[in-house]
Design a protein that fits this description.
By secondary structure, this protein is α/β, with parallel strands linked by helices. It has one domain. The protein contains 11 helices and 14 strands. The protein has helices at residues 8-18, 20-32, 124-132, 152-178, 208-213, 235-245, 259-265, 270-273, 277-285, 289-296, 307-322; strands at 36-47, 50-62, 75-83, 89-95, 111-113, 119-120, 135-143, 149-150, 187-195, 198-202, 221-224, 226-230, 298-303, 326-327. Strands 1, 2, 3, 4, 5, 7, 8, 9, 10, 11, 12 and 13 form a 12-stranded mixed sheet that branches. Strand 7 and strand 8 (149-150) form a beta hairpin. Helix 4 (152-178) packs parallel to helix 6. The radius of gyration is 21 Å and the shape is globular. The relative contact order is 0.18.
Amino acid sequence: MTTPKLTTNKWKDRLLSSGIPLEYDVAKEFVSKGFAIDADYSYARSDQGFEKDFSVDLLASAYPPVTNPNEIKANLNILVECKFRSINKKWLFLPEIETPDFMSIDVVPIQVTDVCSAYSMENSHIRKFADDIAFAYKGTEINMSDGQVQDADIKHGINQLRYAMPRLIKGSIFLNAFNHPDDSVPFITCSILVATSELYIMNENTKLKDVQQCKKIDDICSLVPYLVLHSDYGPDFETHCKKTCEELFNIKEHDRNDLYRRRTEDKKDIDILFKAPFGMAYAFANAQPYYLKPYCTQFIICTFDKLPELIDLIITTVNEDLKTVKQIYGMPDKNV
């Protein structure tokens, strides 16, 4: 049996389409910025009634401020999924039309979690980052060669990131419960979908007739380097989160230095109690939207060429907020 011969470009096209060269470049970019890389960060997920392993392309981790390896003020984890698209494919997004005041979640794509730590940390610069970036609520891919429009690859990438987040949060909660209070630093998380396609966001004043009459995509859209996509989840993800995080119901058994108990008992008001360590752990184990939505519905989408700029911006933004970090709990017999 003879092996079919591939033309010179066929093997290259297929290799590029696999996303492996793109993933390699993305990984090197994060490493050059001071991150460590965990490739194929896996998670278990039910598929047609069977438990199977899935993975997101990369978990990029750093201990900011990244410029000083002897000083650790937080644990920064970024889930990264990579999508190679041919040059004739463009991604178009619809701008968020719901004002932040009426949205049901805290619209910040970089989440700071200090409640499960021995420290406090403000996030004013991260909030400014969110104010300055475009938000979208839906996206699709347009093939400029054959005119096909589909959103399957965008949705696939988003769901890979979404379904990986509960495992990451569970691990961070358990880690800080086990750590010495001095080492139980705030953890910071975000999800990034990196694509080689150009990213467009529709102009807010665009109407149906404008699309019907336009001659090129630039007439109705603006090119952007990156944006935040708000994408809600359904019952299947809630079930996945409950199964992934059910061990958090036993978090009290792992609270080695009573840090979580002390933080929880210090919260007197019932609304604040829900934001205490045990409250957060139980909320993820129960898939409560109050906690789930800020972590699992907001995704940064970045065109590959602008990834270095985005990473620098994230590091700079996080480092500014790190200036507010204060230790408020030590060992049980030590007041801070």
